Amino acid sequence: MIEELGQWTIRNVNDLGRFSRFGAASFAAILRTLWLPRTYPLIFTQMNAIGVQSVPVVMATGAFVGMILAIQAYGQLASMGLEERLGVLINIAVVKELGPVLAAVMLAGRVGGALTAELGTMNVTEQISAVQSMGTNPIRYLVAPRVIACLLLTPFLIIFADLLGILGGWAVSVFQLRINAGAYWNYSAIGVEMWDISTGILKGFFFGGAIALISCYKGFTCREGAQGVGEACTEAFVGCFISILFLNYVFAVVLDAIYKTFWPLRPLL
Amino acid sequence: MSPKTIQPQDGILVVQNLYKTYDQRVVLNHLSLAIEKGKTTVVIGPSGCGKTVFMKHLIVLERPTDGQVYFQGRRIDDLDERELAQIRTHFGFCFQGSALFDSLTVYENIIFPIEQHVRVIDYKQLSELVKHKLAMVGMDGYQNQYPASLSGGQKKRVALARAIALNPEVILYDEPTTGLDPIMSDIINELILKLQKELKVTSMVVTHDMKSAYKIADRIIMLHKGRIIADGGPDHIRTHPNDIVQQFIHGKVGEAELAALRLGGTRFETQFLPEDFK
Ligand SMILES: Nc1ncnc2c1ncn2[C@@H]1O[C@H](COP(=O)(O)OP(=O)(O)OP(=O)(O)O)[C@@H](O)[C@H]1O
Ligand SMILES: [Mg+2]
């Protein structure tokens, strides 16, 4: 029992160590890749696969979040006669938390799974060794473009999710729940600050990086065979999901502290 | 037995006391070997004896558990990946399972090593080069196909073309003719000979095909249970006194394997036959 626990700990600490080294190597590779314009086509290919093709699912996610929030919150607010303030509630929730987090989770499933499966298959069919054998650093060739694409595009995808969330909430509130549109927007405009929107989008940068790094790492270290690839995908998704939630918590704490520090200076800005 | 006195300068590629274990299972057991520049060395040995693992150590795709690998007198097994990348440009490695990039076309596969190390300006000339390399292995005309649409033998030949794309000094072939028809195999043998003659390439070939081994080898090495049990020219191997070597090169089954086949006949009590499922 104790022995098992010990082994488990050692394994996970080892894994964490290897992941850190992988992360450091990726970081170096990313800087180098950004420095070399001839590698940009690789990044654009990945941007297309990762970003452009994720737009519909992310938009759908955002829209439904906004719509459901409207339905669920309406009853509570209406009983207090505050239904015109529905807009603040929906828009703050969408822009600050639900839009970024759910869009990231959606991406973890869609992009993370695909990256792990792709790199995992390349690993077990020795394609990664082949890249190495030809004197190319596989992290630079395979990981860096994917991480860069994810880093750059996740914030944009979050903008899409936010936008559709706001529209979905508005549509349900105004057309289905018959709230006055003018009041809806007025209260929203007062309640939601630029700070909320921009930090929500900023989070996307980190979520995207975490998703790509974890998925690529799991692909690179995946075990032999179809089962190995399958397990790697599962582990990658769970890893991404937990990291997103954890990062989100860290962000909440840090951003709150920053906000409070700069609150008195706000009129100066 | 190769003497322990092999020095790093004895050949273009030298391994000293190479020892490799996977989870305590010994795969390479203190191998020492010097490979001469410009010669073709053939490695034979039963399936699973560690030939592929040995070849991977030569370009440090696997790190030895113990022992050293030298290339041109310089120790390479302890270099970091960046320095290794530089060293590996001197090598061509043809993987046993082809290892073509399946998201790239045949053409893109072959220009991959070139694009990685040479600033390509003239793409027309490049496509001529690809055409030429593919023609050498009888695969011209397949430039725009993806590896998934090729047969096993065709993939192997494209992998070969990719391995020689950068005109490397040392080419390591892991079973280049396995899965090819006899005529194609012979074309590959001729290709290996031609590269050696015209470009003074040093080659190392793993093969199970004794006919091609005799044809291309300057030297044949037999691995068995992680050790070198025979080492010499084709004639030396043909007349080698060791029973294991003789059985291997003539493809004869040993007494022990036959005994395992005889054990219990062909129909076991616990065997499931189609009538059981009626
Ligand atoms: N990554 C690995 N992890 C664990 N064991 C390995 C690994 N790679 C190889 N082995 C083991 O090393 C031994 C030698 O494998 P290798 O692939 O070198 O055989 P081989 O001589 O090339 O056989 P074949 O002729 O069938 O290709 C095998 O027993 C194999 O199980
Ligand atoms: Mg092999």
Report on this model:
The complex is a heterodimer of chains A (269) and B (278). Chain A is mostly helical and 269 residues long. Chain A has one domain (35-257). Chain A is 86% helix and 0% strand. Chain A has helices at 2-35, 40-50, 55-79, 86-124, 127-133, 138-176, 181-191, 194-220, 225-262. The longest helix of chain A is centred in the middle third of the chain and has 39 residues, at 86-124. Chain A is elongated and about 70 Å long. Chain B has ten helices and ten strands. In chain B, the strands form two sheets. In chain B, strands 6-7-8-3-9-10 form a six-stranded mixed beta sheet, sandwiched between helices. Chain B has helices spanning 51-58, 81-88, 106-117, 123-136, 152-163, 182-199, 210-216, 234-238, 243-250, 255-262, and strands at 13-22, 25-35, 40-44, 66-71, 74-75, 91-94, 170-174, 202-206, 219-224, 227-232. In chain B, α4 packs across α5 (152-163). Chain B has a single domain (37-63, 80-252), classed as Rossmann fold. With 278 residues, chain B is an alpha/beta fold. In chain B, a hairpin with a 2-residue loop joins β9 and β10. The structure holds adenosine-5'-triphosphate and magnesium ion.
